[in-house]
Predict the structure of D-alanyl-D-alanine carboxypeptidase family protein.
Amino acid sequence: MKPIFYALILLLLMPLMTPFQNTAYAMEEEKPVTLHSEAVILIDGTTGQVLYEKDSDRPMYPASITKIVTGIIALENGNLEDMVTVSEAARNVEGTRVYLLEGEQVPLLKLVQGMLINSGNDAATAIAEYFDGSEAKFAERMNEFVRDKIGVTNTTFQNPHGLFNENHQTTARDMALITQYAMQNPQFRSIVGTKELGWNGEGWKTTIYNHNKLLWRYEGTTGVKNGYVDESGHTLVASVKRGDSEWIAVTLKAASSEFAYSDMEALFNYGFEQFRTNRVVLNPSLFQTYLDRYVIPEELVFTSRKDENFVIQINDASGQMVVSSLEGQNLYTEDLESIAAAASRNRSSEKQQEDNPEGASIEKKAVPYKLGTGTTFVLTIFITLVFLILRKRIKRKNAL
């Protein structure tokens, strides 16, 4: 049994001896090529980690990237099958349109598509009036939404479409966070990633094409929106996914559309060359000492430089899981839930279910952790070996 026992111990320890990728965040040496936009930011769309920024907190005019907010509000809070009657104000709004006619009735979902794909200002106004009767009232909803639900603090909208208003301002950082939130909605993600769509309206029958040219010119682009008014210059928000990494970038006030797109490509190239999103599946058996005190997460998700190695440990004093570089630099921390707190939460959930047996399903965690694939693999080997040894011994005994 000894050789088998040692082999099993080695299997259990192998994940600890394997260097992982870390969460290092640094931009001191490598930088993107020269950028033309006045304010930019690049973040990891999964973790929110900032990978690069320039004047990202400077108040700027957003133009039509404003419609990202109008779109996610409509998708989250409206009945997408509702028929919206187009008003005179919506019919006559300035700028890019999908040529709605006054009195035309359009499903809310179609208005969102026309607004996000073809940047229809008339569709944006119709959406605002559907919710609150006017652009001004809807702008109040927009500001409350981004402040209270997303947590941004440097944005003030005055309308649903982004036509110029001196008080209609945001920042690159805020727009990145707003987009990160919106891209978690599958329907929003699908619409902003749509290259073309047949449009059959009373006043316009055509195929509309997404104004975001990056969908055609940069591999892995998943969305989201461009914009332009004289005062804002060219603005652009885009997202790109390759492998496990999805980046979101914002460029504000470029002198031309081509400058905005080239800046975006430079930022994404930089991101993929320097960083990666890590998904580390944790084997609970590697933290055996702590299993009676903490709930061990199934997975850690964080951003790192590609070439950085790290170790994962639990800091018992702080109750945190800590990712550190081999040099001892703290790269990432995650608060751990205590077993006592988890048990209390489970009891509370069970009591709610008893009090409301016919209510909606309530999430329950019967055990503090779930076996990862690595643990399952080791246990399978162990059980198989034990079974074979026992069967061999039984055969020998019967032979005697």
